[in-house]
Specification:
- By secondary structure, the chain is α/β, with parallel strands linked by helices.
- The chain folds into three domains: 126 residues, P-loop containing nucleotide triphosphate hydrolases (Rossmann fold, 3-Layer(aba) Sandwich); 55 residues, Helicase, Ruva Protein, domain 3, CATH 1.10.8; 120 residues, Zinc Finger, Delta Prime, domain 3 (Up-down Bundle).
- The chain is built from 16 helices and seven strands.
- The strands form two sheets. Strands 2-3-4-1-5 form a five-stranded parallel β-sheet, sandwiched between helices. A two-stranded parallel sheet has the order 6-7.
- Helix 15 runs antiparallel to helix 16.
- 28% of the residues are buried.
Length: 320
C-alpha cells in the first residue's frame, strides 16, 4: 500500500483524516487490521513495519511520533534507521503506514528537518495540517461547508458567517455545533442564520452566567444556571465554562500581547478578544483561577462518582 507522514498543529483535521482511512478497513476484522503505536522502540517498530497482513484484508498501522520528533532523545542509530527506511520502501502491498506528529497548537513549531527519521518519512506522502488563521474566514467557511455536506446538511452564507463570528477557528467545536444544528433543523437540511442564532444564544447565556460568577452575583448566577439546564446537561455546562475560563486566564495573563497574538493563543476572533478584554477589565485573575478550580473539583467529583447529585455539586461550586 502506502506510507504517509501527517503533521501539524490542527489535531482535529488529523483525527478526521485518520478516521476516514480507518473507515476503509473491514469492520469485521478491525481488531486485527488496525494497530496504533506511540513512539515505539526499534524492535517493536520494525516488527510492525514488516508485518505480513493475513487473509482478512488491508491493514493500517498508525505510528504516533511525537517523542521521535519533539524530544531530545535519539531513538535509533544509523543502522536501525537504514532498516526502517528499507522496510518502508518495501512496504507490504496491503499495509498502510502513517507516521503522525501532532504539534502544539499555535506555537509555530515545526518538525526538526535535520533529523534522519524526518528525512526518511518525508520522502513518502507528506501532508501538513495547520491551524486555520482566524482572519482567513474563506478557508474556515469552506471547511464548514465540507463538514456540513458530509453530515447531509448545508448552510446559508449568513449562517456560516455567524457561526465563524461566534466560534473563531475551533474546528472541533464547529463539528459539535453542526451536529446540534442538524438535529435542530430536522427534517429540513438547510441551516438558516436564525437556527445558528438559537445555538449561539446558549453560548451567550453561558458567557452571561460566567460573568455573574465573576461579579460575585451568586443568586443571579444560580438562577441563570437553572435556565441553562433546560438547554444543556450539567456536565456540558461545566465543560463549556471551563473552556471559557481557560481562555480568560490566557487573555488576562498575557495582556502585553496584541489582540492578534491573543486570538492565535485562544482560537478566538480578534473582535471577541477585544470584547473579552473590556469585560474582564475589573476582574482579578485570582478570582478566575479560583472559580476554575472549584468547577474542576465539581466535575471531578461527578465523573469519579464521588457525587451522585450533579446539579447540587455544581451549585455548591458556584457559591463556594
Amino acid at each position: 500500500m502506502a506510507v504517509y507522514f501527517f503533521y501539524g498543529d490542527e489535531d482535529y483535521n488529523i483525527d478526521l483524516e485518520l478516521k476516514k482511512m480507518c473507515s476503509k478497513l473491514n469492520p469485521d476484522f478491525l481488531s486485527m487490521s488496525l494497530q496504533a503505536l506511540d513512539s515505539p522502540d526499534f524492535n517493536t517498530l520494525i516488527n510492525a513495519l514488516r508485518t505480513q497482513p493475513m487473509m482478512f484484508g488491508d491493514m493500517l498501522l498508525i505510528i504516533n511520533s511525537e517523542e521521535y520528533f519533539l524530544s531530545n532523545k535519539n531513538f535509533f542509530d544509523e543502522k536501525q534507521l537504514e532498516e526502517i527506511e528499507d522496510a518502508l520502501k518495501n512496504n507490504p502491498p496491503t499495509l498502510n503506514v502513517i507516521f503522525v506528529l501532532r504539534l502544539p497548537r499555535n506555537e509555530n513549531k515545526a518538525p526538526d528537518a535535520r533529523r534522519k527519521l524526518y528525512k526518511i518519512v518525508s520522502k513518502f506522502n507528506k501532508k501538513e495540517f495547520p491551524v486555520f488563521k482566524t482572519y482567513k474566514t474563506a478557508e474556515i467557511a469552506q471547511w464548514i461547508r465540507n463538514q456540513a455536506k458530509d453530515k447531509g446538511i448545508s448552510l446559508y452564507d449568513d449562517a456560516t458567517e455567524l457561526l465563524i463570528d461566534s466560534i473563531g477557528n475551533n474546528l472541533r467545536q464547529f463539528d459539535t455545533e453542526l451536529d446540534k444544528l442538524k438535529l435542530l433543523a430536522y427534517p429540513e437540511t438547510k441551516i438558516s442564520k436564525k437556527m445558528v442564532e438559537e445555538i449561539c444564544s446558549s453560548n451567550e447565556d453561558l458567557f452571561a452566567f460566567t460573568e455573574m460568577l465573576m461579579k460575585n452575583e451568586r443568586d443571579s448566577a444560580l438562577l441563570e444556571f437553572q435556565k441553562l439546564l433546560y438547554k444543556k446537561h450539567p456536565l456540558e455546562i461545566l465543560s463549556a465554562v471551563q473552556t471559557m475560563l481557560r481562555k480568560w486566564i490566557v487573555i488576562k495573563t498575557n495582556k502585553t500581547l496584541s489582540t492578534e497574538e491573543l486570538a492565535k493563543l485562544t482560537g478566538m476572533r480578534e473582535y471577541g478578544v477585544k470584547q473579552t478584554l473590556q469585560k474582564l477589565k475589573n476582574t482579578k485573575i485570582s478570582d478566575i483561577v479560583k472559580l476554575k478550580e472549584n468547577l474542576f473539583r465539581a466535575e471531578y467529583n461527578v465523573k469519579s462518582a464521588e457525587s451522585i447529585d450533579i446539579i447540587s455539586e455544581v451549585e455548591c461550586a458556584i457559591i463556594r
